[in-house]
Each structure stands twice: as C-alpha cells, then as structure tokens.
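It is worth pausing here to work through a concrete case rather than discussing structure prediction in the abstract. The textbook approach is simple: state the sequence, then state the predicted structure, then interpret. We follow exactly that order.
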Amino acid sequence: ENQDGRNGSCPSDADLELGVHSLVLRDGNKLAQMEEAPLFPGEAITAIAKDVTYICPFIGAISGTLTVTEYKLYFKSVLREPPFTLDVPLGVVNRIERIAGIQENSCGLEIVCKDMRNLRFAYKQEEHGKLEIFENLMQFAFPVSKNLPLFALKYKENYPVQGWKVYDAVGEYKRQGLPNESWTISKINSNYELCDTYPSVVVVPTSVKDDDLCKVAAFRTRGRIPVLSWIHPESQATITRCSQPMVGPNDKRCKEDEKYLQTIMDANAQSHKLIIFDARQSSVADANKAKGGGYESETSYSNAELLFLEIHNIHVMRESLRKLKDVVYPVIDESKWLSNIDTTHWLQYIRILLAGAVRIADKIESAKTSVVVHCSDGWDRTSQLTSLTMLILDSYYRTIKGFEVLIEKEWLSFGHRFAVRIGHGDENHADADRSPIFLQFIDCVWQMTKQFPAAFEFNELFLLTILDHLYSCLFGTFLYNCEQQRVKEEVQTNTVSLWSYINSQLEEFTNPFYVNYENHVLYPVASLRHLELWVNYYVRWNPRMRPQVPIHQNCKELLSIRAELQKKVEELQREVSSMAVSSSSERASPTHSVSPVQTTV
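Step two, the predicted structure:
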C-alpha cells in the first residue's frame, strides 16, 4: 500500500493530474510543475520553455519557466523565496524584437509593453528551435494581424453581476430629467445611418425636424452633429458635443447648422448666449480650415462666443508619454527626477485638460450658459472634456456605477476609437493613430481624487484596474471603435464586461473615506503646484518606488471598521428611538424629549 492509505494499483487524483500535465510539459519534473501557469476558463497553453532567464532591470537575471498561452506570458521561478512570477497579458505587448543572447548559443527577446515597462528574456537556441517562443508570442500578442480572434471572445468566466446592464442610455437620460419640453430622445440614428460613429440613442432639440438634422450632419465632420451630453438639473444649461463644422477656406455656411445652435441656446431660458469651446489650438484649427474643416464664425453664429482651449493633438500626447517612459523606466536619475519629468510636458498637458474642463464647468454652473464642445472629429479631446466636466458638476459620476456609466456613455457610445488608439491585437506599433487619450482622462480623474479624497466612491485600484484592462483584451468593454461595430460583433453576447468583474467584488474598489457630496460642484485646482506624477501607475514596476505600507490592505481594513461603526450607530439610533418611545408612554407630560441621533460615519 501507498503511504496515503490507497491501494497501489488504483491511481490517485494527483497521479492522473500528473499524467495530464506530462502531456503538456515536455519534462514532467517537479520543478516544471511548480512553475506551471494558472489558466482562466477558455485559456490554453501554446508553448512552455524551461531554463529561460528573465533579465530583470532591478534584481538581475532570474532563471525559470516561461509559459505562453492564448492570453498571457507567464514566467515563474521557484528558485527564489518567495517564488518570483511575471503574469503579463499579451494585450499589453506593443512590439516584440529578437535580440542577441547574453551567452553563447542563446537568443533573446525584448518585449516592449504599452503599460510603461519592457521585458527581456534569454534562452537556449535549441529550446527556441523546438518551441518557437517568438512565433507563439507574435501570433497571440497580435491576433488581429494574424486573423485570429481576440482572447476576450474565448474568455468564459461567469460572474454573479451582469456588467452589460450597467448602462442604459434612455435610463441615464431619464435620470437627468429627459426628455422635457425642449429636448427629446431621438431614434433618428437607430440604424446608425445619420452618423455611423454615434450611439443609436441621441438627445436633440424637440423642435428640430429630421430633415434639418440630416443637413446639419452633412455640414459636420463625419456627420457628428451637436447632441446633448448633460443638462443642469436647475438652470437647464446643457453640454452638447459634436465635431468641427466644414466651413473650409471659403467660409462656407449652413443655415440649418446656424439655426440648430440657436435652438440649443434658446432651450436654456437663463442665458442669451452660447459658448462654443473648441478644444484645439487656434493655429491647428486654422490649418484644419484650410483643409476643409474649421470652426464657427461669431459673425455667422449670432449670440455665440468661440473659445479655443489650446489642447495639443494626439501625436504630441503620444510623444509626451514616450518621453515619460524613458524617464521612469527602467532607470531613474534621482538627481534630475523633477527636471526630467518636466521635460516630458506630461503634467503640463494634464493641467491644460483640467483647466479646460474647469472653464467649461464654470460657464454652466456660474454663468448658467449652455456650451458646445468639439475638436476636429469630436471623439478624442471632446470626450476628455465632456466627461471631466460632467465629473466636476454631477456627483453621480463620482460613484462606482456612475463612473462606469460615464465611460460607457461619453467614451464608448460616442465612438472614441479604442481599437485604433490602443492598437488591440495589432502588430503595427508605429501606427500614427495610436495615442494615450483615455489614459490622460484617467490621470485627470486620479488628480481630482487626490484633491478631493472623500468625494469619490472608488479607490485608486479601481482606476488602475480600468487601465490594465484597457489593454488586456480579457473583457469586451474596450474592444472596437464604436457602438455600431460592437453591436455587429455581438460583444455583449460573446464577451464578458469589465464591470461584471469589478461589480462582483465592490469592496476591493471602494474608497473607505467616501462621503456622498450630493449636488456639490468640485473645481480641481489646475495648477502645476497642485498636480503630481501618478507614481503608482507610471512607475509601479520599479520596486524602489512602491509605497512602504500596504495601502490597499489598509483601505480594506478601514472599510470593515467603517461598516462596524455604521452598524453600531444604527443600533444606538434604534436604542435611542425605543427609549424615547417608552419614556413618552410612561410619562404623560415628559420633562424633556430625546432627539434621534443623526450620524454618518
């Protein structure tokens, strides 16, 4: 008999499992099993290489097992204590290059990632010949380029919460008090015929006829007409978003477009003015005008004021992030840390974005004036500005669910081109259309959470998780470029929503200091003195820059303490209420009454 008491002729579960693993592993030794990758439902291993060296820029060379799956690159070394692991979704890979090995008869790989790190591996030449590590990585890191499905279409995890139900366009507009006598929920784009990059549900002025909307669409770049994003609950001042008008070098006019903007202004009885915020630099807008685009002339659009926010284009932002990566990874020059960060201009661009959103919010809140926001196409800087302004003005968007709705509405439904800007599954790393537009928005949100630490229901991990899965291709949330594509690809049927994952474990993402400042407007200070580099995102791979205390664990402990205190408060309130009732019944004319305790923890 075996030591565990089973008969030797009957194989144990462990023996059967070992047999299965030995088919996968070329050598079923104990070390290899200990270094095997954990798998998601629907995930399969495509290659395993032993005796691979990870050249860590912080702790030196580490030997272990490298596993490539359809979803991730997984490296583990049990030679260290505790074991060293790298778990990298292939969606974050920007490019893969072969490099000369550090030893004779070895070859190497450099993997450049979209999330501010690079990875280097070295392994024996013969291992490469047998296992084709490079070819496997190329195939599954860039499935779109290889005519393969993204892993999100294979991921089959079941979560207790259905994230695809988070956003309902009509429900969100109803929350805002729409439709009303001035604004209607229109079905003109229900088949995406008016504008193929807009949502099927849009809010437009009630009095405007569909024929006129079609003429406005013909005058706006890509048919992106002005539609409502948000309405002030008291003043009825609105945020509308659109693309540039195609006035061109000859100052072409469209009377339907001019009348349409007048109708938007008239819908707000509090003001006799309409502010048009053009996100672009005025010089760039002039250049666009020469090519057939342009901006609204104050002479053609009566009662309108045009303001340029001077925000740089997608190419400038991409270059700024590239410079930032050079500064923070892998080596940091301590003596020039601040000046090196300054040369990237990253924080200057964050400041300009926040300052623009504050200006827009102030016009709505203080001047009670409706605003129109656009850039060139209305899907990059416009999304940044409308969503940040709504975050400043509306406390609902500072809750976990509200923020998810904000992303679904202003980014996903209004056609921010995630597939193009991020390059999901695409090996063309030099594509000029890639740009960290959404990352900048999340950075601005993080800056606001630093300035108002009790105003947001979500914590930093929530923002980090959103950014990690912006690249990962594990969930369907950020796939494709617009709502029409997502409907065509049946994303809600064929993939899992990121919000399913987050909303199934809300305690992980909740800020223990949150206080619901309902109806409070939050104006962040858009000054470099008040902004800081988000080290926990941009420099998180450097172990020397990590916080010395376990912040996330502390937050979870604070949440449980908060829940206990809230429970005690509720018990005391019940006790006081029952005492008040019993004392009033005992005495016909009580000498004093006890007020119920009103405490919010």
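Step three, interpretation. Residues 476 and 491 are 6 Å apart (CA to CA). DSSP finds 21 helices and 14 strands in the chain.
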